[in-house]
């Protein structure tokens, strides 16, 4: 009884200092009135797979957070087992050419918006983070993860060439030989393995703890000038984003060509079948 009352008081306190900034069905944004930190919660059941609409919602939420002069972004998930399962594979299967092009452009833009965000970014990884789910976490400046989940980019395992901006996201966090081995093996890391190679910064035991660690990280920039910080971050990250900033059309064309090959489509069919079979067992 006493415990649940304490819990209620804590909840009430938290709600008092949080105001809702903007929510769509797919994303939820809460801004802490005291710190100005925005928590962006991905909310696309069942597993936060990124289809066109979700990528749009994520990009627009991030842009809105930046334009509201928030002090930072914490990216997390409403699902307590899955941070994000990456791209919605249905977007890639026998695609409508126009929708696929729009989808891929949206992916590029969402990535650039997150990777080069002016404000500090942190990921509270409260579930599996696979493929583009891992890329979103790695694009943030700081990552904290709960135990017993997995994170990584396993594209080569099921016949996908890894696009350059995805390679670059890994390269901006991990040393080249580690990236090479991980991507070529299609390696998925456990939380503990991810900590060992510094793919994540810390392991914590609860989502609340993860959110607090992320808030502390963002708070660590309090004494810096936000413009100087943002421009320095851009300088450091621009080489990894060069291709998408200067020539997104080439990346788009190469990706669309590849996705439309019979080799890719056959591998995708097999992989989707495996995913469905797993659930029928
Ligand atoms: C030289 C230059 C050339 C340039 C070439 C460029 C080429 C570019 C093209 C290549 C693109 C490659 C990039 C890929 C990036 C990606 O992000 S691809 C996505 C990969 N993601 C996955 O493989 C994740 C698969 N999912 C899982 O492993 C599990 O779902 C989970 C561990 C995340 C969660 O498990 P659980 O909680 O048990 O849920 P499930 O029951 O498995 O899933 C529920 C439900 O959702 C469906 N689903 C899961 N993930 C996806 C997904 N990513 N897309 C679509 N659907 C998904 C799953 O099938 C279940 O559906 P049903 O309930 O059975 O209908």
UniProtKB/TrEMBL annotation:
Gene3D superfamilies: 2-enoyl-CoA Hydratase, Chain A, domain 1, 6.10.250.170. Its main location: mitochondrion. It is found in: Mitochondrion matrix. One of its GO terms (cellular component) is mitochondrial matrix. Transmembrane segments: none annotated. One of its GO terms (molecular function) is delta(3)-delta(2)-enoyl-CoA isomerase activity. SUPFAM superfamilies: ClpP/crotonase. It holds the Pfam family ECH_1. Pathway: Lipid metabolism; fatty acid beta-oxidation. Coiled coil: none annotated. It catalyses: (2E)-tetradecenoyl-CoA = (3Z)-tetradecenoyl-CoA; (3Z)-decenoyl-CoA = (2E)-decenoyl-CoA; (3Z)-dodecenoyl-CoA = (2E)-dodecenoyl-CoA; (3Z)-octenoyl-CoA = (2E)-octenoyl-CoA. Keywords: Acetylation, Fatty acid metabolism, Isomerase, Lipid metabolism, Mitochondrion, Transit peptide. GO terms for biological process: fatty acid beta-oxidation. Homotrimer. This is Enoyl-CoA delta isomerase 1, mitochondrial. It comes from Drosophila rubida.
């Amino acid at each position: 009884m006493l415990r649940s009352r304490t819990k209620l008081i804590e909840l009430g306190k938290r709600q008092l200092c949080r105001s809702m900034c903007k929510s769509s069905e797919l994303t939820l944004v809460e801004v802490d009135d005291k710190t100005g930190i925005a928590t962006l919660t991905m909310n696309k059941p069942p597993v936060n797979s990124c289809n066109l609409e979700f990528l749009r919602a994520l990009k627009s939420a991030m842009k809105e957070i930046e334009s509201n002069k928030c002090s930072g972004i914490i990216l997390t998930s409403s699902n307590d087992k899955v941070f994000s399962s990456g791209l919605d594979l249905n977007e890639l299967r026998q695609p409508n050419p126009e929708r696929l092009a729009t989808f891929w452009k949206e992916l590029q833009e969402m990535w650039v918006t997150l990777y080069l965000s002016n404000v500090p970014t942190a990921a509270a990884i409260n579930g599996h983070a696979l493929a583009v789910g891992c890329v979103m976490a790695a694009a943030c400046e700081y990552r904290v993860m709960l135990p017993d989940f997995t994170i990584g980019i396993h594209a080569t395992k099921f016949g996908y060439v890894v696009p350059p901006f995805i390679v670059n996201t890994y390269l901006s966090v991990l040393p080249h030989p580690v990236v090479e081995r991980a991507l070529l093996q299609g390696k998925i890391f456990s939380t503990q393995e991810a900590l060992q190679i510094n793919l994540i910064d810390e392991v914590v035991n609860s989502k609340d703890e993860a959110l607090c660690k992320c808030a502390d990280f963002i708070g660590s920039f309090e004494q810096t000038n936000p413009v100087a910080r943002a421009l320095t971050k851009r300088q450091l990250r621009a080489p990894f984003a060069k291709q998408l900033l200067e020539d997104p059309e080439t990346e788009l064309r190469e990706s669309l060509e590849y996705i439309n090959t019979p080799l890719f489509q056959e591998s995708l069919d097999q992989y989707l079948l495996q995913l469905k079979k797993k659930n029928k067992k």
